[in-house]
Amino acid sequence: MSKTWNQPSQAALVKSLWPLYPGEDEATNTSQLRHRLNLLQTWFGDLTPTPKDLQDASILEIGCGQGDMTIPLAHFAGHVDAVDPAPLDYGSPFTLGQAQAQLSKHFGDKIRWIQQDPMDYIRSQKDSQSAPDVVVLANSIFYFASEGYLSSLLRELRAFGNGHNSGSLKLVVAEWGMRATNPAAEAHVLAAKAQAPNPLPDGNVRLVVTPEEIQRIAADGGWKLAKEHWIESPELDDGQWEVCLARETRRNGKEAPLLDEMERAVKKLEGKRVAAMDVWTAVFTI
């Protein structure tokens, strides 16, 4: 289990990049940025100097959202194609369109924003002369409609990789691991489980899958697990956010006992903040 990367070199990088995040909440933005730098390190190794697999690399990021992961990817890599089907007016208090426009001012053509279903985009690139070196799924699987969609997407990516870069395509994944090493994160796990049966229209949870399930789906699609790693980032605000969102769900099915259990977990904290659950990371090859 790895904790946040706290090397001195990271402090300067965080100081220079956090203002690119939407809003002016330095504490929230820096914690989100540190977490994503930690993801990069678990996937690619020490970030000083820039890892060979990242330097000048072409990245396909699926589910980029407002660009939380896109920022460090664009800083280290050669180019990022950032794909997300969400409308540009999605998000609050800052929309996807506003956040992406801000990043474009800084990174220019290093980022290409693509508002399209990822599956449709991949299929549209079959005759393209270029291909990414790395595909990134960073906290985006929970947004997918179903396991079937994830399965089809990974199969399409494998076929695309085989046809374009001799099977050298890498797939890197980070997702909430549905486990809480820190007891204060148990409410986050329960909040995610409670939202899955009836996802909120503007929520962050549609598909809850465990690392074991992701590995099975990836293996069925022809991907080989090269390495996996767990990260603790309890300081992230996502646990708090998901508990608040879970309280908006309907209590008319199997989510009701989960919501009750979530509230008991929150009560045990006696006013302390809900921590974020553990994050599972993995690297897959063809």
From TrEMBL:
SUPFAM superfamilies given in the database record: S-adenosyl-L-methionine-dependent methyltransferases
Entry superkingdom: Eukaryota
Record domain Methyltransferase: where: 59-158
Protein name: Methyltransferase domain-containing protein
Species this protein is from: Zymoseptoria tritici ST99CH_1A5
Lineage summary: Eukaryota, Fungi, Dikarya, Ascomycota, Pezizomycotina
